[in-house]
Structure formats: structure tokens, C-alpha cells
Amino acid sequence: MRRETLCIHGGWQPKNGESRQLPIIQSTTFKYDDTEEMAMLFDLKKSGYFYSRLANPTNDAVAAKIAALEGGIGAVLTSSGQAANYFAIFNICEAGGHVVASTEIYGGTFNLLNITMRKQGIEVTFVNPDASEEELAKAFRPNTKLMFGETISNPAGNVLDIEKFARVAHAHGVPLMVDNTFATPINCRPFEWGCDIVTHSTTKYMDGHATQVGGAVVDSGNFDWEANAEKFPGLCMPDESYHGLTYTKAFGKMGYLTKLIAQLMRDLGSIPAPQNSFLLNLGLETLHLRMAQHCKNAQAIAEFLEKDERVAWVNYCGLKNNKYYELAQKYLPNGSCGVISFGLKGDRATAVKFMDALQLISIVTHVADAKTCVLHPASHTHRQLSDEQLKQAGIAPDLIRLSVGIEAVEDLIKDIQQALERI
Ligand SMILES: *Cc1c(COP(=O)(O)O)cnc(C)c1O
Question: Which residues cross the membrane (predicted)?
Fold first, then answer.
């Protein structure tokens, strides 16, 4: 089935007389008539539901839809995008391991790698994603377990050369993991370009209505863990907590995701509520329609801003003069996302005046939902930093992040225009 059809029918196909819409199985536990059957589930010898921390039918149906959309063999939902990235990485990289990550990633993921995972004994080297393959190769060490990047980075909007990253990762015997939150599988499927594992913050476009916080980890099934068994003992050696079972041997291609559920979900939790997965599923049903409108609106607004003399600069990979235009044409031929960044001539105060003058467009700490919103990192998320420190963090003091929604673009442009007139 095509992606548009999968958005609607993926994951849940009701049988005769069953509920048309995905049912919310709001239950922690599942009943069995005999002890032996439950014991088999605990030993992973049989598949079935017994406790929602490990698996729940509503969550599984939505995970299956996301896996189908990405063209993967399976997916696991998590309670947030942060949890998805943490689980995806920690599943193969423990204390003593090392990660090579792009510098151009979401601030939360940067902190996770740079602060929290270091405390757990995991090292990270950040690389400029635009560097040559030779430069990128220098970051690898014998204990490197994976390479990480974002298809379209949040907030900078850089486009990742996925094929280049995949070549470098594979030359070092490790998988490439890509956070595909901003592009969504509607606009890019990283597996088609050599990526091995995809992660998502489903909080953004997938939900699309700002109703739930969630995440997903999707496996392509393409990475050969056994060929690099010494690097991945957690997958390729017996697990004591499951009577010496070896994930790759017992579950083949599903080994990575089975370990993620059986070990990490069991021990760390972080499952989504079935109610949230239901809301996420409603969002997914219209993802293909919404992404097209986000991209069309963002393109029109980027072109409008570019022509206005009060605007100092505009960054959107759909603009012909953008540094990432060529990469966007290759990886995101149908459109990228609705997030634009731009700066106004003037200083921090000019940006604040502009934002306060907006009427339809609201100031919120969110991106990628149906309603257009705006954020000024220098006044909000990064307000403790001086102009100099902001520049070091790669954020211009005048940077305004505009997340373009799916309203009529004429109304959005009218609002921007009147706000520009009042600065
Ligand atoms: C928001 C975001 C995250 C974190 O997701 P949460 O759902 O907020 O935990 C991770 N990666 C990217 C690219 C994001 O935009």
C-alpha cells in the first residue's frame, strides 16, 4: 500500500464485527486461564499480552502503522521522543561505548548525549554533518557503537546527507540512526538511503494537534549485528536475565526491538498511555494531507519573508539560494517541513516587538502542529545566554523560529505583514 493509504489503514484492520476505529485497550493486565501459558509469555517463548509496560494492543497497532510508513520491520512506541532516542541508543551502547553524533540535533538530544549519557559512561564525539567522509571517519574509535543525525535538524533546519553518513557508519561496522521527526515518513524514508534505525518524536507532525507527547523507534531490519558481534554483545551474547537467551539467535531480525522491549521497557518503563496512542493514531490518519499543506504554506511564507526589506535573512531549505537546497531536492523532493527560521534587521528587541505584535500566530514552546506558532530562542529557550554565547551555540540572537501551520496562508501572511509594520 502507498503511504497515504497506510496513514489510514496501517496497523489496525478490524475483523468481522470488530470496532471500525482503533480500540483503546486501557488495561494494565491481560487474563489467562492456565499458568503454563503465562509462564511461556514471561520466557518470551510465546507472544501475547500480559502487562502493558511490555506491550499493549493499542500501542502495538500504532507502532505497526509507523513501521509500515517508514518501511521498517517493526517499531516500539515510547512515552516521549526523548525516551525514543535514549532507548534506541542505550539498546546497543552501554558504559564504555562511544557515539558519533551530528552537532546539528535537537537541544534535548544534545543534552542527553553530552551530559546525561556521559554520566552513564557513554562517550560522544560531535561532528559537523557537512564535513567530508574523511573528516567524519576521524571521529570513530574501536568502541564506537553507532552514528546519529537528524534528517532535518531542529531548530537550524539543516538537511542531512543520509547516504554519506550511512557509508561512513557502515565502513566502521556500526548502524546509522536518524531522528526523522521533522521530515516524517511522508517526506523522507531514511531506510531507502541506507539508514538502519529511525527514531521519532511523535509529539510533532505525527500527532500534529499538540495533544500528546510520544516517541517511536523503528528498525529497518537491515543491519547485520552478527557480522559485528564483538561490538554488540548485548544483542549477540546470552542475556542472563532471560535464562541465557541470545536476541539475534532467538529472534533473528527482530532481535534489536525484542531486546528493547524485553530489557529496556521491562527495566526502565516509559510506555505511552493507550489513550495517547489513540490520539496519535488520529493524527496519523491525516499526516499525508497535513504535511503537504505545512510545506506549501511554509514555502509561500519563506518566499514572502525573503522579499521583505525589513527581513535580514531567511533559512528554509525550499528556497533556491539555501545552502541545503540541493540536498533537500534529493532527500525531500515533495517538501521538507513547516519550520522556517529568520532574522529581522535590528536587535533582540526588534524580534520581541515583532512577536508581540502578532495576532493570529501565537507564542508557544512547540513546533510542528496545525496552528502556526513562533519562538524567539534568545528570549525563551536560551534566555540565560549572552549574544556571544548564543552565537557559540549556533543560534543568532535575532533568530525567530516560525512553525507554519495549516491555516490559509493569506491569513498568516496578513498577520506577519501587520506585525512587520509595527516594529
Ligand atoms: C521534540 C523533539 C525531540 C524530543 O521529543 P519529545 O517528544 O519532546 O520528548 C527529539 N527530536 C526532535 C528532532 C524533536 O523535534
Answer: none
423 residues of the chain, pLDDT tens digit each: 999 999 999 999 999 999 999 999 999 999 999 898 888 888 888 888 999 999 999 999 999 999 999 999 999 999 999 999 999 999 999 999 999 999 999 989 999 999 999 999 999 999 999 999 999 999 999 999 999 999 999 888 999 999 999 999 999 999 999 999 999 999 999 999 999 999 999 999 999 999 999 999 999 999 999 999 999 999 999 998 888 999 999 999 999 999 999 999 999 999 999 999 999 999 999 999 999 999 999 999 999 999 999 999 999 999 999 999 999 999 999 999 999 999 999 988 899 999 999 999 999 888 999 999 999 888 887 777 777 777 766 678 888 999 999 999 999 999 999 999 999
- Domain ranges within the chain, ordered by starting residue: 3-275, 288-421
Distance between CA atoms of 228 and 92, rounded to whole angstroms?
12
Q: Is the CB of 277 under 6 A from ligand 1?
A: no
CB 175 near ligand 1, within 6 Å:
no
The matching CATH number, chosen from 3.40.640.10, 1.20.140.10, 3.30.1490.20, 3.20.20.70, for 3-275 is 3.40.640.10
Q: What's the 417 CA to ligand 1 centre distance in angstroms?
A: 30
- Sign of the alpha-carbon dihedral angle for 285, 329, 218, 211: negative
Nearest CA to ligand 1 atom 7: 81
Nearest to 67 by CA among 174, 191, 156: 191
pTM of the model: 0.96
* H helix or E strand, kind and range, residue 34: none
Beta strands in 151-252 (DSSP E): 176-179, 197-201, 215-219
CA-nearest residue, atom 6 of ligand 1: 81
CA of 85 to the centre of ligand 1 (A): 9
> How far does residue 209's CA lie from ligand 1's centre (Å)?
15
CA separation, residue 379 to residues 107, 156, 316, 400 (Å): 16, 17, 22, 10
Query: Does ligand 1 have an atom closer than 6 angstroms to the CB of 149?
Result: no
Give the up-direction half-sphere exposure of residue 324: CA atoms within 13 A in the CB hemisphere.
Answer: 23
CATH topology for 288-421 is Aspartate Aminotransferase, domain 1 (3.90.1150)
- Measured in Å, residue 288 CA sits from the centre of ligand 1 at 20
Q: Is any ligand 1 atom within 6 A of the Cβ of residue 80?
A: yes
